[in-house]
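User: Hey, my collaborator sent me this sequence without any context and asked if I could get a structure. I don't really work with proteins. Can you help?
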Amino acid sequence: MDPRNSAQDVVRCTLCQDSVAPMYCEVCHIHLCKDCVETHLSDSSKVHKVVSLKQYLTTLNNPKCRKHHEKQCELHCEQCDIPICAKCISSGKHSGHKKIDIFQSFEIKTGILEKILQELEKFIYPKYKEIASNIPVQKADLSKNSRKLRTAIDKKGEVWHREIDTIITNLKSNVEEMESKHLVVLNKQEDEITRTISEITQTIAELKKLLNSKDVSLVSEYKPRIAAFRRLPPKLKVSLPNFRPQEIHTDQLIKQFGSLSALSFTTEEQDYSMPPQGAESSPPDRSLMDVPRIITAIDTGYKYLSGVTCLNDTEVWTRGSNSMMKLFNLQGEQVESIQTKSGNTPQDIAVTRSGDLVYTDRDDRT
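Assistant: No problem. I've predicted the 3D structure and written it out in structure-token form, which is a compact way to encode the shape of the chain:
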């Protein structure tokens, strides 16, 4: 249907993305068709709670208006991004602003929060854990390299006499100092990453609690911090020092014994890209047929058939060249018919999430 002339289409199943979804899982916050309910319940990792979508929507409560406390908000002003009541509208403050149903706004925001939660749990959190797990490896490499340096210095020192003991001690001290500086940098990065992981874990918990609360006001007011978490910590790139021994010349003991290369720190930005839309939700092993298959042919009785919309998997609403809208089943039997209030031909039809038929009348602008 042309979105410029159409009402909102029917809600589709999150799993198969094909069938009408009259059911809703309050735990996973996804829409389900009847065929996918059993598959979803078979996932024993969670205790699911599947209810009808209509029942779920009736459990939501309209939030109280911030300005007119005795009123409940039924709309959401998209320009001001706040719930509004009838008094807010009559005040003229939101005149010319785009307004949508408060529960539609709730559904949109819930969808955004679900995607943020999914991104945090499946992409950002594992990435931070991966980065954090690499720091102990860096510490092990640092320790191994330091031991290697000390061993080389000791071996060289065995060849030399007492007069170079001071040189050996100073060089060891330099190694310890560089290791200490390196550890300070690594420990600081580890602490920052650990703190961020804790914040992510807290945010995940808050989002889950928020999504399960059904509190429209809290959901509307919640400001996610996802942008800060998308900026991954810079990757620490270290050039570890090494020992460069020299040939022994008595008159140049200090220069000939060798020196340590300088310890240096550089950072390298790590790229993070958003997961492709639908990457997690796309159903596996679903392919389009090369040739469409006709399930049934229905004689609607219209001279010209103008549009159809599915009520469910077995029934479909139709509109044609007159004012009558007809409901047929897949056997071609007419189940119901409804005439437009004005007697005009409907411009388009759609089915709401609750299963109600909606039509547009271009002539009387309703």
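In plain terms: The longest helix spans residues 102-159. You can pass these tokens on to your collaborator as they are.
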